[in-house]
Fold:
Amino acid sequence: MNSIIFILLSLSFLWALYALIPAIILKRYVTYTSPVIHELVRVSGVRVRVVIKRDASVNAFSLPNNVIVITEGLANQGQDNLRSALAHEVGHLKGFHHVKTFLLLTCLTGISIFLIMNVNIIVGIVLMLIGIIIMRYTSRLFEFWADKYAVSLVGKSQYIQLLTLNMDPKERSTMFSTHPTIMNRLKKI
Ligand SMILES: [Zn+2]
Structure:
């Protein structure tokens, strides 16, 4: 098969996943409303929809379609912690982190497949591995950026309260980690 067609097919598969995953997740959760959300939308200028997941752990993540998923565990941590967690996710959306990550993934995948098929399989696989490290490094940079943005919205002491809520002193970060340790995040804000 022509390598360009194969690359385009592979990338189309990635793009389909990128479009479908948020839609599938959205169907599973119900909308969550709070004055905190309206306040963050107003100060950030980012229009978000928040949905809630039945889960006792404290967690939140955002999707490319400006939807933020929060857990019941986080919603039960009080309005201040909820505001801080949402502000962090708004930071990811404000900085277009999902789009940037996806574009980087698209480029690295396309180039790697091209090299595997046309140049040398080893060179292509090595670029893929380097790509994974670059993606993880970028992900950690985006975490720091979202933290800084959240601090600008909710204030440092409020945000530190959220970060220390679930801090694990034994937590370690490597070049393959998607998130820096809470300790490193505290140092950077
Ligand atoms: Zn984050």
The domain at 3-188 is CATH 3.30.2010.10 (Zincin-like).
